[in-house]
Amino acid sequence: MARTNIMETIIHFSSGQIILKKQENANQDSHQQVIDCHKLSKEFIFFDMNKQLATKTIYVADPVNFLQDVDDSVQLIEAAGGFVVNPSHEALVIYRRGKWDLPKGKIDKGESIEEAAIREVEEECGIKDLIISKKLLVTYHCYQLKQQFVLKKTHWFWMDSNFAGTLVPQQEEGIWKAEWRSNTEIEDLFTNTYPSILEVLHAARQAGF
Predict the structure, then answer these.
(1) Which CATH class is domain 75-206?
(2) pTM of the entire structure?
(3) Angle (CA) 56 53 204, round 5°
(4) Which residues pair with 91 in a beta bridge?
(5) Residue ranges covered by each domain of the chain
(6) Can you give the pLDDT at residue 6?
C-alpha cells in the first residue's frame, strides 16, 4: 500500500508510481538513480510515457518539499478532501466514474485548505455538520489533461459528522452514489479504487478507523 513519510514521497501515475527518496540513502540501493532536482519534471513525463515501468525510485535532496523543483512544464493543482466518519464509526464513500472514491476537489482562489476540504465534501455528498479532527496526509497523482501534464497534490483530513439526513451525490460531477460504509465493508469496496485512495485508507486505519 502506498505511503508518504519524512524520508520518501510516492507519486501515483496511471500505470505505476515514482518513489522519491532522500539522496543520502542512495548508497543503500544498488540500482540507485540520483538526479538533479531540476530534472524532476522530465522524469515525470518520461515515466508516464513508458508504460512498461511499474515502479521507479529516484533520489533527490528533499523528497517532501520537492515541488519547488518542478518546473512550468508540469501544472500543479492543489486539492483537498475528507475521510468522514459518523457516530456509528462508518466512513463516507462515493462511487464516481466506475470506481469507489472519497470526496475531494480543487481549492478555489482565496480559500484555505480546510475550507476547501469541507466545501468539496458538502457539495459532492450533500452532507452538513462537518468538523475537521486532524490532517491525515498528502497524496500526489500525475496525469495528462488536454495535452498538459498535471501534478495534483491533495490534502486529506479526518472529519467527524453527526449528519443524519439523506446523502445526495453530486451527479453533475459523475458521482452516482454517496454512502456510509463500515470498517469491514469499505475493504471490499476499495478493491475497485485508486492507489492514492488506498493510501488515504491506510492513513485512516493508522488514525483509528
Answers:
(1) alpha beta
(2) 0.87
(3) 60
(4) 85, 181
(5) 8-69, 75-206
(6) 56
